[in-house]
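Dear all,

This email documents one entry for the complex benchmark we are building for the journal club exercise. For each entry we list the sequence lines for every component of the assembly. Then comes the predicted three-dimensional structure of the complex as a token string, followed by one or two observations. Please use this as the template for your own entries, and keep the labels exactly as they appear.
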Amino acid sequence: MPELVQLVSGPQVEPKTVRIGIIICARYRNCGGGKCFRALRQRQGGFSRYAAEDQLQIVGYSSCGGCPGGNVEYVPAEFLKNGADAVHLATGLVVGYPPCPHIRQFKTFIEKQYGLPVVVGTHPIPLKYLQTHDQLPFWEQVNMKDIAGHLLAESREVMESYN
Ligand code: SF4
């Protein structure tokens, strides 16, 4: 499995440039990306793993192409041509009703086929989505904590600011 260790924040010698490709759920294909780009700037949600001094560059941004996500087969190749170091699956895949049923498969496929580490999540989970999901069985059924635990552990205050 590709190594994410080199990309996470922590003690380091000098700032790095990390090139990121983002894949969003096609149900939100018209989204302007405001929450994702804010989170990237503020190092929150899926981007909290990067150090504040690192330079994050978006080298690709695409939807999955619609269920069952045919674009996921191809679009990472384009990210790679632009020098991508990692792929982030947008938080919409996690919070949608129902969540995307293919998150694990997308992650496994991209990591195997393209050798790119895949992070589940971009912006923090908006609190209103968390509150609704707390009343639904979906996350538990797919053990979402296992693949998006870092998003679920974010402070309620931060989540509320993304409502
Ligand atoms: S639910 Fe999954 S496969 Fe369907 S549109 Fe969203 S990301 Fe794509």
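Observations: Helices lie at 34-42, 75-81, 92-95, 103-114, 127-133, 138-141, 144-152, 156-161. The beta strands are 17-24, 55-63, 86-89, 118-120.
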